Amino acid sequence: MSPEQIALVQSSFVQVKAISDTAATLFYSKLFELAPEVRPMFSRDIKEQGALLMATLGTAVALLKRPAQLKEAVEALGQRHAGYGVTVAHFEPVGQALIWTLEKGLGPSFTPELRAAWVALYQSVTVTMLSGMEMARRPPPKEGATAQDLAASSAGPALSVTRTSKPVWWKRLWQALFR
């Protein structure tokens, strides 16, 4: 993300925080409309879940100027989400719901530039979460494994998130966010 995009996201998040309960309700309503199959993944009260969503977004926004810490936090988030049964396919409706929520919640202040900044953040978070999910799905290292063993075991074909060309789902996500 560019410094300008970071500033846009951070300044707009102040507005989002002011309507956090409404934003969370809008987000989950839209998400469950777009992807009703994910509803059973949310066992806690949706109001609590909304508070967690807003706290997570707040953390990501606060760490935008500290990319190493942001990467670590989002990878950990991805690792947790792997345990919830989240798949690559879930990222598209989540992104659509997020952008739709921001558009509804921020109204006319949600400019094309602001949209692009939030999309850039979501793309970055998606790639990093997928990396964290992949780490969570790797078998633990064998006792006594050397650094060379670990490097060899992590270079396998399962690391699709590191390839240089974007997979088809990424193209669909991008198109969906810019409808």
Secondary structure blueprint with pairings:
Blueprint: H1 3-18, H2 20-34, H3 46-62, H4 67-84, H5 91-106, H6 112-137, H7 147-153, H8 168-177
Helix pairs in contact: 1-3, 1-6, 2-3, 2-5, 4-6, 5-6, 5-8
Strand content: under 5%
What's the shape? globular
Helical segment tally? Answer: 8
Going by helix content, strand content and strand pairing, the class is: mainly alpha
Q: Can you tell me the residue ranges where pLDDT is under 50 for at least 5 consecutive residues?
A: 155-167
Euclidean distance between termini CA atoms: 21 Å
Radius of gyration: 17 Å
Oligomer: single chain
Instruction: Kindly report the average pLDDT value.
Output: 83
Largest sheet: none
Give the total of beta strands. Answer: 0
The helix/strand series, from N terminus to C terminus, equals HHHHHHHH
Helical proportion, percent range: 55-70%
Describe this structure in words.
The two termini are 21 Å apart. Mean pLDDT is 83; it is low at 155-167. This protein has helices at 3-18, 20-34, 46-62, 67-84, 91-106, 112-137, 147-153, 168-177. Helix content is 70%, strand content 0%. The longest helix is centred in the last third of the chain and has 26 residues, at 112-137. It is mainly alpha-helical.
Any key phrases for this structure?
179 residues; 8 helices; mainly alpha; single chain; globular
Briefly characterize the structure.
The protein is mostly helical and 179 residues long. The chain is 70% helix and 0% strand.
